[in-house]
Design goal:
about 0% strand; rod-shaped
């Protein structure tokens, strides 16, 4: 039974085996390709062993840019062996530190843009709310006005009761003082 407890291959596909001759031919082609790449890197320098790109003078910026366009970075893993024919794939060019423009405004992602819009809308609403222009603010102000009136009425009533109590107490003291004087 194969690995993982599965039964067999996929539905009715016929298995294809690579013959030893084909494997040898592929290995020879890969070795030849590697040799050709090494020769291109050396470029006939021989003793130095450094690529032409590094040996060129740094005087002209134009020649550096041209070299950067031709330069292809090393592939990771089997990426170099597999040719991808995807027309939608965009090759990412490495940017130099001197080429990066920090002052230019970068494009925001959809989520970031929506978050900023949400914050601005909230600030706008709070300004209008504080100015009393929103319906909620108008309702709050009306409720506060009613509460103020109730408190004023309660304060007046309490003041009147206090005055009445004071008068009663003062008249009671007068009566006592009059009765004591007699």
């Amino acid at each position: 039974m194969p690995k993982g407890g599965r039964k067999g291959g996929h539905k009715g596909r016929v298995r294809q085996y690579t013959s030893p001759e084909e494997i040898d031919a592929q290995l020879q082609a890969e070795k030849q390709k590697a040799k050709d790449e090494e020769e291109e890197e050396e470029g006939g320098d021989g003793a130095t062993g450094e690529p032409k790109k590094k040996e060129k003078s740094l005087d002209s910026d134009e020649s550096e840019e041209e070299d950067d366009e031709d330069y292809q970075p090393k592939h990771k893993g089997v990426e170099g062996m597999i040719d991808i024919e995807n027309p939608n794939r965009v090759a990412q060019a490495a940017k130099k530190v001197t080429q990066i423009d920090l002052e230019s405004p970068r494009e925001l992602s959809r989520r970031e843009r929506e978050e900023i819009e949400k914050q601005k809308a909230k600030e706008r609403y709070m300004k209008m709310h504080l100015a009393g222009k929103t319906e909620q603010a108008k309702a709050d102000l009306a409720r506060l006005a009613i509460i103020r009136k109730q408190r004023e009425e309660a304060a007046k009533k309490k003041e009147e009761e206090r005055k009445a109590k004071d008068e009663a107490a003062s008249t009671g003291k007068r009566l006592q003082s009059l009765s004591l004087n007699k």
